[in-house]
Amino acid sequence: MDVSSLISTLSINDTCSNISNFAANVNGHRTEFVIGTFTNQNLIIATQFEKLYSLYSVSVDHTENGICTVEPIYSVHQLFGKDNIYGEAAARFITKELNIRKQLLIFLSLKDYSRNTVKSIAEAIKNYSSDKDVIIGPPGSGKTTYCGKVYDFYKDKLNRKVEVVNLDPANENMNYNPAIDVMKLVTVEDVMDSLNLGPNGALMYCMEYLEENFDWLLSQLVQIKNSYLIFDMPGQVELYTHHNSIKNIFGKLEKIGYHLCAVHMVDSHYCSDPAKFISTLLLSLSTMMQIGLPHVNVLSKADLLKKNSDKLDFNIDFYTDVLNLDYLLDLLDDGPLTKKYKKLNAALIELIQDYSLVCFILLDVKSEKSLLNLKSAVDKANGYIYGSGEERSIQALLSCAVGSRTESERYDTDFF
Ligand SMILES: Nc1nc2c(ncn2[C@@H]2O[C@H](COP(=O)(O)OP(=O)(O)O)[C@@H](O)[C@H]2O)c(=O)[nH]1
Ligand SMILES: [Mg+2]
């Protein structure tokens, strides 16, 4: 299917687009899907034939004669194809089921339009669209703590179906009950004993073993339907800067249609020393380059950072926004250990500024507002659009319709 020429034929002229395709088995029929997200509209193609037969346009309205409606009103128009009232009903059903809030262009070419088939089509899209966050970062940065907290928060406060997958083969003190646990496949402790390796070597081995046994992970993942997944990852830095197993595992997950977003956590304690902060920036940048996923950098334990803010050289914004590092260069050039390396300091600062990719979100896991702030950044990085089953107040729908407030901002005013 030549999607780009189709999109230009449909005159969807949009620079901000996100298009993906995948195939799924829907009630015994191979079905090809294309999902496109644009600023003002969404596109769904679902075909069980080689061709596209019918195109429908569904508009979503939240007011009638100027008065807000309790439920959104869906108006369906068939733009081309043979008249098919079942197709129109299917287009309406899918829009509603996926809680789509923008105009939807939907091509449906199905062998039958029974309720069962149409429901399975919506399910297949939902399964595909549910996002997955991979929580990465050095040991002790707070990944496991965050996974447990965010699990409770998503489930209890945002009403999202959510599960945590533990991929750290040496995870202690999990404050959540993992839906999948890599420690059932392999543990660092066993590898250290059986192969006589140290902890670092054993962890590398475990991730290579997981890569080789990707089918084990996949067989468990397919059993989790329709949930937002959070992957708790191991902390060893080289796994994200140059070793390839984790990158390959993420690549395989993306290939089968998972949307991943990397949430990279670094202890905000490193802000207290200019040399450590530079190494934090370099680590974050090289991880972004190596992993190559939508990426959100986080400075964790912000409560401690705030408590000790008088000990910082700059305001907290300086560390989160990473806008002008020349001030940091001055400190490095005066530092007892770093003053010898003026040229190297200047080159490192220039490298980070040239890429201009790294900035941070602060996180204090004890604050719901902080969890929400991070969630909002992750949703934006992910392009999370479908929120079926999440709270649907008229206000929320209206504000989404005009694009004025994100779900987080709504939650913010509703709960705080
Ligand atoms: N003060 C504070 N401590 C935190 C926070 N997040 C995690 N920690 C602590 O940091 C330590 C390491 O956390 P853990 O989640 O095991 O880190 P991981 O190795 O990255 O999984 C634990 O003692 C946590 O209690 C936070 O937001 N604030
Ligand atoms: Mg951990």
Could you characterize what this model shows?
The chain has 416 residues and is α/β, with parallel strands linked by helices. The protein contains 17 helices and 13 strands. The chain has 2 domains: 3-128, 2-Layer Sandwich (Ribosomal Protein S5, domain 2); 131-385, Rossmann fold, CATH 3.40.50. The strands form 2 sheets. A 7-stranded parallel sheet has the order 9-8-10-7-11-12-13, with helices on both faces. It has a 6-stranded mixed sheet with strand order 1-2-3-6-4-5. Bound molecules: guanosine-5'-diphosphate and magnesium ion (MG). The site of guanosine-5'-diphosphate has 15 residues, from helix 4 and helix 11.
Q: Could you list some keywords that capture this structure?
A:
single chain; binds guanosine-5'-diphosphate; binds magnesium ion; hydrolase; 43% helix; alpha/beta; Ribosomal Protein S5, domain 2; 17 helices; nucleotide-binding; Rossmann fold; seven-stranded parallel β-sheet; Gpn2; 416 residues; Proteasome_assmbl_chp_3; six-stranded mixed β-sheet; Psm_Assembly_Chaperone; disordered C terminus
